[in-house]
Predict the structure.
Amino acid sequence: MKRRFNLKPLILIWAVLLMVPGYGVAQEVTQSFLPVKEEIGVKLAMRDGVRLSTNIYRPDTIGKFPVLLMRTPYGNGGKGNRNAHFFAQRGYAVVIQDTRGIGDSEGIFNANQPEALDGYDTQQWIGKQAWCNGKIGTYGGSYVGFTQWMPAPLQSQYLVTMIPVVTFSDLHDVVYQNGAFRLDLFTPWSFEMTKPYNVSRSSITDKIDSILMTLPLIEQDRALGWKISFVRDWLSHPEHDLYWAGTSVGDAYSNIRASIYNIGGWYDILLAGTINNYIKMTAPDIDPEIRKKQKLLIGPWVHSTGKRKVGELDFGEEALFNSTEFRLRWFDSQLKGVDNGVMQEPPVKIFVMGINEWRYEYEWPLSRTDYQKYYFHSKGNANTFEGDGKLNTKRPRNESEDRFVYRPDDPVPTIGTMGPYDQRPVEERQDVLVYTTPPLKNDLEVTGPVNAVVYASSSAVNTDFTARLVDVYPNGRAIRICEGIIRADHRNPDVPPSNISPGKIYEYSIDLWATSNVFLEGHRVRVEISSSNFPRFDRNLNTGKYFATDTTMINAEQTIYHSPAYPSCIILPVINK
């Protein structure tokens, strides 16, 4: 039976993506200090002559001030920008710029491509203004975090500090996750970013179900009535080739001289980028003086930070986070030299879900991590949560393998899009294998990177395998913790993609990103294995043909092995008491 997907949560993604960069000022912040002078719509020329619309908010008094810069494709705020006024009243000049091709800025919006040079040129212009004291801090999230990372290696002498939030610094590795296209992230976003002025969001909403099911993938924009060139470019360059060179920091992290406070969420769609940026900036090849100025904070959030209720869980008051006050404290320290204690705090601060507490750490991943393998077991019938799949730390003996059929015309639906949601609706499907521990006798903390090692064969020449870590409550709720996917032709990251031989057993390492969660006493740890997660990822049509232009679907018979020779498992980063 074909299933109609509940794609309404995708509309929430659009809203979240468009809200992230502003981080509105908390309602309780009403005290004013310095009067504010505005210069709206200043046309700032880039090196190629294209002029970008730039708003300047600064104290209306004589003097030089540290500058806070935000470069955004979501609108530069206009007159009376409340967020900008908050900082200008407290002694900062605030510059907010529409990126190329957005708002009143000239040029063509070509997502992510021009941000390095445009960002650098803007920083150099700011540094030479009479009202700038020579120090710039950048802030913002999602795309607006990317606009911070890209110019940073170019080493503007004025760039002192950054606060990139829920963001990334390698576009390819966000568009593609282990070979699979991030459909529910970039298809709706690209629609919103390119829609004509006379097209309403609701008209797109009405079409989204059919659009995301449209084949070939590269022509989904035809269903809208307008062409999205940069998405077609992305789909034409599935591998990390020269096309992506301008959208990645690459090997240039060691060129960055700024202090950086990275902020992310355990359920954020860009969590991997946030963590990777911190790891890169604390690597041995980074100048020790720069390395000690790097920080990481991860809360229990999705793509917007600071809320206590996320998905179907309430993480309590501890999860609340005032981003405005946080930024002020960091910028006061880094740009004004205020000794407010922020640099004396340990570099990593994480929210441990389950017990719902914040905790400081000194590195990521944690040096005391005990990586434990939890192996899959069954008698050959792990299909659905009512099957006989089991999960424990004992290596498997000779056991019957598990099988399911993956049908691209009826993929496993994404439940709840972002955040912790009950996965039982998909665990009822025959094409989802479920492996579960007995109820835990003691709390089990899992904090760090999570990986599944799956030994599998397929009747297809190319296919996908997915893995999900789930926290099962005593009442049966199966709450998603983290998940991942791998396209079979990307099974070996060190060699070019290649199809598989039908029936041959391969080892697949599936990156589920990371988490920090305590599986409480009485809860159970669960792993789900399947071959689709739609529309989070595009459907593999199983033919081995070029995925963006293929329209032919074939079913794939999948076999998952758990035996002494093929010990499929999930590797959990356990933190012992």
